[in-house]
From TrEMBL, chain B:
It comes from Desulfobacter latus. This is Anti-sigma factor antagonist. It comes from the Bacteria. Belongs to the anti-sigma-factor antagonist family. InterPro entries: Anti-sigma_ant (IPR003658), STAS_dom (IPR002645), STAS_dom_sf (IPR036513). PROSITE patterns: STAS. The lineage of its organism: Bacteria, Pseudomonadati, Thermodesulfobacteriota, Desulfobacteria, Desulfobacterales. One of its GO terms (molecular function) is anti-sigma factor antagonist activity. It holds the Pfam family STAS. Gene3D superfamilies: STAS domain (3.30.750.24).
Length: 137, 114
């Protein structure tokens, strides 16, 4: 297991992204899969900083990376405000209508579209987002 | 955030020199695009040749510029790396933006010479 801990500042997220890309490269993922894996973890950590900690520095975001023979699991922990997935608006727009184009709210859609499993739970005041990517054998 | 920019006739070409447009740089990117649009640039080519990584915040900043121009001009994109293109496809933004393989093609399309 690899554990990364960053302070809750958006400029730190690229450090996590670089680590994820390094792992993807080690697992010989192609460039698009590697990008998409990095994208998911970056989106998840961004959400932690923006929504759990409201972009306030001085809090920890922890990321555990666990490699199994058939899957890669990421667990992202924070002790900030709990996310309510039911309150997240669905990602929907009309490509031909400029007014409907979203400028945000894409993060969860991206996670669900690209990861094989997405779980969210709160245990003893700690919010845990688990993302799983199955590995091709 | 470093953004190279130059005008070819009335088309503004913007080329980010950073490899990432993400949550930490999206606000600055959006602000600079807004300034250029407010100062009268209505036809913009965004050249992403140097960009390896865009997250949804970066994409949102690009969309913001596109919406700000609205029907008074156009913002087109060129030289998008295949991995970054996968984000445009995933979010269906490839159906929103005109995306060109080269800067010249984008320029010609915006200049009405294509």
């Amino acid at each position: 297991m690899i554990r990364l801990i960053i302070d809750s500042r958006l400029e730190n997220v690229s450090l996590v992204g670089g680590a994820v890309r390094g792992i993807a490269d080690t697992l010989c993922m192609d460039s698009t899969t590697s990008y998409q894996l990095e994208l998911c973890i970056v989106e998840a950590v961004n959400n932690n900083i923006k929504h759990a900690y409201h972009c306030k520095a001085g809090h920890s975001v922890e990321i555990d990376i666990l490699l199994y023979p058939n899957r890669l699991t990421f667990k992202i922990y924070n002790k900030g405000e709990r996310m309510n997935p039911a309150k997240v608006a669905p990602f929907s727009f009309d490509p031909s209508n400029v007014e409907t184009l979203p400028e945000g709210g894409m993060g969860l859609y991206i996670l669900h579209a690209l990861m094989d499993e997405v779980h969210y739970e709160t245990i003893n005041g700690q919010n845990i987002l688990t993302l799983v990517k199955y590995l091709k054998s | 955030m470093q953004l190279k920019h130059n005008n070819v006739e009335d088309v503004l070409i913007v080329r980010p020199l950073e490899k990432r447009i993400d949550a930490s740089t999206a606000t600055e990117f959006k602000q600079k695009m807004n300034e250029w649009i407010d100062s009268g640039n209505r036809r913009i080519v965004l050249n992403l040749s140097e960009v390896d990584f865009i997250d949804s915040s970066g994409l949102g900043a690009i969309i913001s510029g596109f919406k700000k121009i609205g029907n008074n001009g156009n913002l087109v994109i060129c030289v998008v790396k295949e991995s970054v293109m996968s984000l445009f496809r995933l979010t269906r933004m490839n159906r929103v933006f005109d995306i060109y393989a080269s800067e010249n093609e984008a320029l010609e399309a915006l200049s009405g010479k294509a």
